[in-house]
Specification:
CATH topology of the largest domain: Rossmann fold
Distance between the termini: 21 Å
Shape: globular
Protein name: Trk system potassium uptake protein TrkA
InterPro entries: K_uptake_TrkA, NAD(P)-bd_dom_sf, RCK_C, RCK_C_sf, RCK_N, Trk_Ktr_HKT_K-transport
GO cellular component, one term: plasma membrane
Strand content: 15-25%
CATH superfamily of the largest domain: NAD(P)-binding Rossmann-like Domain
GO molecular function: potassium ion transmembrane transporter activity
Number of strands: 11
Order of helices and strands: EHEEHEHEHEHEEHEEEH
Helix content: 25-40%
Pfam family, one: TrkA_N
Strand order of the largest sheet: 3-2-1-4-5-6
CATH architecture of the largest domain: 3-Layer(aba) Sandwich
Length: 220
């Protein structure tokens, strides 16, 4: 898929490298052309000088063909503004913003925009949220038979009980991350906008389950 990144600092450049290694195309935006020196010499994507919340700049970066957008500049206001433009103007559902102020992060989570706030941890969390399938496992048992992973779910799962995921896939919803806090789901716990869904599943079934949850429930 195509991913647009705003901010070519340590997080943005590492994120671009990680996405390209996984076969995705990338365009990265920064106000300073000097920032692109942080990119790997092997980087093949686009570099655009400008503001990541400017409509024309985003179009130049290919936002109209993008499936995901990451705002990782060093300014909270710029990140959330760019994330909202990507979602509300261009209809990008898979949007993540880096927010430094934890108090404000909760507010933005309520707007339905996942936020993450060390550099290596941020890159890892961004990757988990941007990629609809193939997320890295959070835990594996010693025999590598069972894995726990955060799974991207299609927007149409929102509003349905977490138990519906278990019925559809045979996996187990271990917990949800909601507004930065862990939630142990009951049978009647409903998936909400912005929830991160952590699923326990058999390693051999992981790819199929991630693909299934990435589609509408009626298509699953």
């Amino acid at each position: 898929m195509h991913v647009v990144i705003m901010g070519c600092g340590r997080v943005g450049s590492m994120l671009a490298r990680g996405l390209e290694k996984r076969g995705h195309t990338v365009a990265i935006i920064d106000q300073s052309a000097d920032a692109f020196r942080r990119l790997s010499p092997a980087y093949t994507g686009r570099t655009i000088v400008g503001m990541g919340f400017d409509r024309e700049v985003l179009i130049e970066a290919g936002i109209e063909d993008a499936e995901a957008f990451a705002a990782v500049s060093n300014g909270d206001n710029s990140n959330i503004l760019a994330a909202r433009v990507a979602r509300e103007t261009f209809g990008i559902n898979n949007v993540v913003a880096r927010i430094y102020d934890p108090g404000r992060a909760e507010v933005y989570q309520r707007l339905g925009i996942p936020t993450v706030g060390t550099v290596r941890w941020t890159v890892d969390q961004m990757m988990r949220r941007l990629l609809p399938e193939g997320s890295e496992p959070e835990w594996r048992d010693p025999s590598a038979t069972v894995r726990l992973a955060e799974v991207h779910v299609h927007a149409d799962w929102i509003g349905l009980p977490a138990f519906d995921i278990e019925k559809a896939t045979g996996a187990r919803v271990a917990f949800l991350t909601r507004l930065g806090e862990g939630v142990l789901p009951r049978a009647d716990t409903v998936i909400q906008e912005g929830d991160l869904v952590h699923v326990v599943m058999l390693e051999r079934d992981a790819a199929a389950i991630e693909a299934q949850l990435g589609t509408k429930p009626e298509e699953a």
